[in-house]
Design goal:
alpha+beta; five-stranded mixed beta barrel; OB fold (Dihydrolipoamide Acetyltransferase, E2P); single chain; GMP Synthetase, Chain A, domain 3; 353 residues; 11 helices
Length: 353
């Protein structure tokens, strides 16, 4: 039994990439606990594991004496002969846990111990590998869908992508390979330890970085992102190199780069805007696709701005259900109010929702 157990430990250690010492220490603990029921609980129990020979020994050592004064450390000569027929006074003998008892203990505890230690060791490995990758864009295959939670295969372990971390347009099937952002990594727990997201603004930022070399090389930088997942994102960018157009770099030739990002976001529209440290200019750009006529900073301290747009682009400025003006306000950190120049409109001002 001991030989088979040790072989199993070595095989599992190789397959799972877990240090075998973790298993050996656990088995020693289990044997020590159970052995106290056989030996005196106060005795010094020794456990030796010979990995090369596949031998496990559990024993106590006692000094053979004529008269016993310390029962925990000494044994009478006549009693010692039961364990070692060649024992003499002055010898130190080993009193072993019977092999049948040892085998029974090992059989009962080995499977449970090994599975517990495998789980713990694998969780530690996963945590150490992925904790430092929080905020990183990853890709993985959808292994299964449980209770609407998408379970993704990683190099080590799995990640969970719950419904609240999905965009409304995300609709996936088992076997698909998708991109996601590592939002958080847990040190222990039931189920996958890596929490994935496709909902956060940072997910859009990392997709842009992946698709646009100028961003990954820090030539073009993202100033801010505002997003209504599944509907629209607005991205404000600027360039550290005057020769590089930041908006053009993101959009790409014939719009190929921004289209690739939109495709990954399942059709979510991306508005790329040139950031400016001049609030009026930034606000005007943020309201794209509307055409802005003028921007008036009504309250610079509290960041309130009034904007007039061309009449024919009023609807575009506000957007469906107010999404465009809402995202422009979030992006610029200004409370943008749109004044309608046409007197026939019943509402003269539209405020962000």
């Amino acid at each position: 039994m001991a030989e088979e157990l040790l072989k199993s430990i070595k095989q599992i250690s190789r397959e799972r990439g877990i240090n075998p010492d973790i298993f050996f220490s656990a088995i020693k603990e289990a044997l020590l606990t159970v052995s106290k029921k056989y030996f005196d609980p106060d005795a010094t129990i020794q456990i030796e594991i010979d990995e090369s020979k596949g031998i496990i020994e559990v024993f106590v050592s006692k000094l053979v004496v004529k008269e016993v004064s310390d029962p925990l450390a000494e044994i009478n000569w006549k009693e010692a002969l039961k364990y070692d027929s060649k024992a003499h006074e002055g010898d130190v003998i080993k009193i072993h846990l019977p092999s049948e008892t040892l085998g029974r203990i090992a059989a009962q505890s080995a499977k449970q111990i090994i599975m517990q230690k495998i789980l713990k060791a694998e969780q530690e490995n996963i945590y150490e590998k992925y904790f430092q990758l929080a905020g990183t864009l990853m890709s993985g295959e959808i292994r299964r869908i449980e209770n609407n939670n998408i379970i993704l295969g990683l190099e080590w372990g799995e990640a969970i992508l719950p419904p609240k971390e999905l965009s409304p347009k995300d609709n996936f099937q088992r076997g698909e390979v998708i991109h996601f952002l590592i939002k958080r990594v847990f040190s222990e727990g039931k189920g996958p330890l890596v929490l994935a997201t496709r909902y956060m603004n940072d997910f859009v930022a990392e997709l842009i970085k992946k698709e646009v070399p100028e961003v990954s090389e820090n030539i073009v930088r993202i100033f801010a992102i505002s997003r209504e997942p599944g509907i629209k994102s607005k991205v404000a960018v600027y360039s550290t190199d005057k020769a590089i157009d930041p908006v053009g770099a993101i959009v790409g030739m014939n719009g190929n780069r921004v289209l690739a990002i939109t495709k990954e976001l399942r059709g979510e529209r991306i508005d790329v805007i040139a950031w400016s440290n001049v609030p009026e200019r930034f606000i005007a750009s943020a309201l794209t696709p509307a055409e802005v006529v003028s921007v008036h900073l009504v309250d610079p301290i509290n960041h309130v701005a009034e904007v007039i747009v061309k009449d024919e682009t009023l609807s575009a400025a506000i957007g469906k259900k107010g999404v465009n003006i809402k995202l422009a306000s979030k992006l610029t950190q200004w409370d943008i109010q749109i004044a309608n120049r046409k007197s026939e409109h019943s509402e003269e001002k539209q405020t962000k929702q």
